[in-house]
Fold:
Amino acid sequence: MSTWLKNSLAASGLVFLLGACAVGPDFTRPPAPAGARYLPRGDLPGDVTAIGQTQHFDLLQSPDADWWHLFGSAELDQWVGTAIAGNPSVQSAQASLRESQDNLRAGQGIFFPQLGVGADATRERPSPSMLGQHGIGSIFNLFTLSATVSYALDLFGGERRTVEGLHAEVEMQRYTMEGTYLTLTGNVVNAAIARQAYADEIDVMHGLVSLQTQQLGLLDTRIRSGAEVYGDLLALRSARASNLAQLASLELKRDQADHLLHALLGQSAGESQLPALRFEALHLPASLPVSLPSDLVHQRPDILAAEAQLHEASAEIGVATAAMFPSITLGGDGGSAANAAGALGKGQNQYWSAGADINLPVFQGGTHWYNRKAAIDAYQKSLQDYRGTVLAAFEQVADVLKALQHDAEALQADDEAARDAAQALALIQANYAAGLVNYVDVLVADVQYRQSKLAYVRSLAQRYQDTVALYVALGGGWWKAPHAEAMPPSAHVTQASRAQP
Structure:
């Protein structure tokens, strides 16, 4: 084998090997937290029960994609569907995803030869003095057809790292979109529950104020007869005024919840009047999923988006590192130039050139060095942001799990208080019918009953809202939805390697 052939093969092999490598770190996704728990061992009850409704925490299970169907409300199902179809935030997130996908396709074009063609027709008279000659220049026509081709040899992987970063950007936008879906669906259900809770509280408060108004009339009569003191009247008037202020606040909150629900549906509040959502018609989900911490990090959109940002930051280290090495671009051009258009393409009028451009950074005052150092610092920041997102997610799940436990306790206590107050009211009414007590005592008992009923409505709504919060905190099962492109990586995790909650 000749020396020339050996050298050519060696050079070709070197180019191939260089082309197969990419400087900078290869991204490795952060490991799932080993042994992590939402709550201390034994701190999570298996069941929570209130007013005859039991909720069971189902470990190792993840939420369904359409979890809101579990509440058994046709209105909720319709509202969530309307919101997904018409909410501007969802449409904006979809557009951002499409933008990132288009940027990726544009970036991938660097891996193909860049080809351009051109044509030119000019009429000119050059100055002979520019050529060191004398006389008058002649006028002539010049027609040109040309083509250029160039190809950047990505020897050190800078372009591949750039495209890797664009891939990560697409993933980040995809998970951001899924997070938008999740937040939107949770907000729609929560707004609907809050809207109805405020309406029920307003009904109770109206009755309470009406009773206090009656009490004022009776008390005024008793004061005139000397049976009561004027201070009692002032105290009752103050309590009634306070309840009127609370009633106005509740009406404002109901209106704001209604406006919010309309906005989430992509509508203005004046476009339609939404029906009431009665708690009696709602079904409280009995089986509550509790994904393991090792699964949660591969399910929550915000965690996956933070992971994608970390991947993008890792790729940027490779881009900055590759900038410190030589870059080679192969190029060539050719065409035909003639004084007459009909002569284009003839052999004597053709031209071509080919070559390589090598750019080797030698000294830039530390620019490339510190660009790489800045990329490493950005990666460290993204890593800590990722860790913070994971910790915040675990905290949110832990808060919701304990909230559901205490919601059941509070609701059961408020229900018992309301039942006792109702029985006390019934006894007072019976005594009043028998002439044993006066009507003021009946009104006082009725006020106490309505106050306990107000607390019951609030506790009931809180239990529903915290149930919604659990589904949102666990990621909402977005990967099970028809529009999801792939299962999260946690689907491949064996149960033997999973940590308990």
Strands lie at 47-50, 53-59, 114-124, 140-153, 287-290, 327-338, 350-359. Confidence is low (pLDDT under 50) at residues 1-19, 486-501. The first strand starts at residue 47 and ends at 50. The longest helix spans residues 158-224.
